Amino acid sequence: MRRGIPCALAVGVWALLLSLGLSGASRAAELVMFEQAGCAWCAAWDRQIGPIYPKTAEGRRAPLRRVDLHAERPSDLSRIQAVRFTPTFVLIDGGREIGRIQGYPGEDFFWGLLGELIGRLPAQASKLTNPRWSARPEAPGLEWELGDG
What we know:
Glutaredoxin, 4 helices, 4 strands
């Protein structure tokens, strides 16, 4: 009988820690991409940025989440207002909009604009791997560029 109490206590503590971990994950930053079928600029982003985004410091800090502009909006995104054009990239943190990029201005401008948005995140959350370098990922055919700093 005595063995059952510590075991039940351990299971309860584990469940509590798990629920705290899951609730913290739901508050993490993410980049929400609103898109629609037939969007040429969405397709350009998919070709130029899509494959490398998850490999970048920005992609690790704010993972991409795709949402169809015409589908029912997920309930956790109900506070994001006035998305009319695609692509629209909305950086959210803790369910709150930090900022957005409307349209896709091309690869070089996208990284710069995204860097500005990431910089608005809380200090401990916005540190990139090496802030002296640009957001370019380690991928063949792409060069690293020095940033300001």
